[in-house]
Amino acid sequence: MRRIEILDSTLRDGAQGESVSFSVSDKLSIVRALDAFGVDYIEAGNPASNPKDMRFFEEIKRIKTKQSQICAFGSTRRKGISVDYDEGCSALLAAGTRTVSIFGKASKFHVQNVIKASKEENLNMITDTVRFFKQNGRDVLFDAEHFFDGYMEDSQYALFVLKTALIAGASVITLCDTNGGILPFDLSRIVNEVIKEFSNVRIGIHCHNDTGCAIANSIIAVNAGASHVQGTFIGIGERCGNADLGTIIPNLVLKTDYNLSIKDLSTLTDTVSRVYDIANLIQPSNRPYTGSSSFTHKGGMHIDGVDKNPESFEHVTPQSVGNRRRYLISEMSGKRAVINKLSSIAPELTKDSPETDQIVKKLKDLEFDGYQFESADASFELTVLEMLGKFKPSFNLQMYRTSGEYPSPDGKLSACGIVKIEVDGECETTASFGNGPVNALDLALRDGLARFYPAVKKIWLTDYKVRVLSDDCTTGSKVRVLTENTDGKRIWTTTGVSTDIIAASWKALKDAIEYYFLTEPNAKKRRRKKL
């Protein structure tokens, strides 16, 4: 039951990832999310590197965390400068955190060729800096930068760097795979050798993912004796990223006997999604544990197995990490998959109901025609309800027409869309200009419907994808359109297929609105007619 500490570096190392930029407000929001989840340390930035990080450390002083210690990050003093006069050390001290992370070189190559110092001077830089912060009441975590590369070059010097930091007062010495190039069997051997050299010392591990081994290397290091794991919560970071704590933590909690301060993983999926949202990044659907596909089943045999016993194709329960199970409807689906999907739409149907056979056949025919319902739950539900006679359209299309002009008169709105719809015997014709024919058609439809159903203004399109389904018909190919829609509270997807991209888009756009009316009780409240 060895105690394992978790240090999250999303706000420091993660911010060095491509396309990642956090505002001060973003950083504070991530601190709140990680603290609520229960990580031990949050390495929040380098106050000497930019004014934004220093501003953050001023703001964070007003927030009292429940679980996490806020940690400021910086380097050892520079060569030839007293620690008392080093601007980086002064900024780190001014950050006011109880804990600081100090990194120093553990590679002879880097000492001699990067910072251009002697091996002795590098050791003095480490000693002076760690001792300085200890004398100023700080708990020091020492990151041995490029440790594994340095160990392979000169193991004696790399180990002496660790010993120097410990003697100066560091409470944790972290072995850093800074280049991310070490493979698991080498890492295991080296960590074991370090553990033998330093008994009763808190050894940390910090891995980058340049060989795709960061998660495995981190867990192997823990198994070898490390008790302090560093990474970023969604794996973002320099180059190929850092060790992904959002995967490492559930692996340790659910699959080992180690003791972590994090016991409850029911908020893991929400926390990971929250960090992705703040970072303005899209979460991969196949992310372990928390991705939308993590507990999603498509093959008929898999669905049948899971329905009988989830352990047949799931290594943990989705509830244990705050996720949910999904069954996809496709040409590979069996009757059991459809029944599971129908349970919330038509609970009266069983596998022996004749309607079930009809629905399965219809879905397979539509899939053969190019539809893909696994990513379009709303269209699936509408299709089923229509087959069962339980769906009444909110409006009927009388006609639509689109036209384009190039170059467009104003350089932006290049197309016009005209839509005529009928609602309860009353017709409305509207026209709109748009950025292309699909946009113009969408705007005209919404404008027309708003005159009957004002609530349609509460929904909007968040994603629009087109996929060519046949590669032998050139511009006459059949296409599939997939739309993602939201009302600010929910997200739903619809699909349409045709050799005419406008017709396919119309089907997906129409289904999106019909699904909203179907599932939102007050959405179909009609506007009163003027007298």
Short description:
This protein is of the alpha/beta class and 531 residues long. Helices cover 38% and strands 20% of the residues.
Strand order of the largest sheet: 1-2-3-4-5-6-7-8
| Count of individual domains | 3
Structural class: alpha/beta
* Oligomerization: single chain
Number of helical runs?
17
Description:
The chain is α/β, with parallel strands linked by helices. It folds into three domains: 3-263, TIM Barrel (Alpha-Beta Barrel), CATH 3.20.20.70; 296-387, no CATH class; 396-519, Double Stranded RNA Binding Domain. The chain contains 17 helices and 17 strands. It has helices at residues 24-37, 51-60, 87-94, 108-113, 119-135, 147-153, 155-168, 184-197, 214-224, 245-255, 268-279, 300-308, 335-342, 354-369, 377-387, 437-450, 501-519; strands at residues 3-8, 41-45, 69-75, 99-105, 139-145, 172-177, 202-207, 228-231, 259-260, 296-297, 326-327, 396-404, 415-423, 426-434, 460-468, 479-486, 491-498. The strands form four sheets. The chain has an eight-stranded parallel beta barrel, surrounded by seven helices. Strand 16 and strand 17 (491-498) form a beta hairpin. Helix 8 runs parallel beside helix 9 and helix 9 crosses helix 10 (245-255). The termini are far apart. The model has no long low-confidence stretch (mean pLDDT 91).
